[in-house]
Amino acid sequence: MLLCVSAARAADCTLPAAPKVDWQRCYVDERDLSGHDLSGARLRETSFQRAKLAGTTLTGSDSYRARFISAEMKGARLDGGIFAEADFTKADLAGASLKQTDLRRARFFRANLRGADLTGARLTGADLLNADLSGARWTDGQRICAEGSVGQCN
Asked: What is the CATH number of the domain that holds 33?
């Protein structure tokens, strides 16, 4: 009897930053990926702690449970991505685009979301404790959060 077992393909964490790269469960902490295109990338449970991702494109990426703790993400594009249960603690997302992004149960403790665009984002169960939402466009695409909006859009 012949038994075929298909082992799950492991991510190659040494691959260069590119669209659709598979970095699942990789550690890319403190790397400078500013301005790179990671659209459609597989980034599940990947760690980007203190990484530089300013202006980086993460549209359509699968970043479930990824860690962006203290990451520099000014002007990044996360549109249409899956960031459910991701950790953005102390991340700088000023001016970032998070349109139609799945942010369910994501953590934004003390994150900077000033001027970010959250149009159509799903925030069910998200932790926005002490997150700065001043000037952010709220999920309805209409309301702009007032200056001093911390933890909620006023």
From this structure: 2.160.20.80
On whether residue 39 sits in a domain, the answer given is: yes
Domain of residue 125 covers 18-154
* 113-141 residue pLDDT tens: 999 999 999 999 999 999 999 999 999 99
What's the token pair of residue 119?
């149009």
Record the tokens describing residue 65, joined without a space. 């449970």
Residues 36-80: tens digit of each pLDDT? 999 999 999 999 999 999 999 999 999 999 999 999 999 999 999
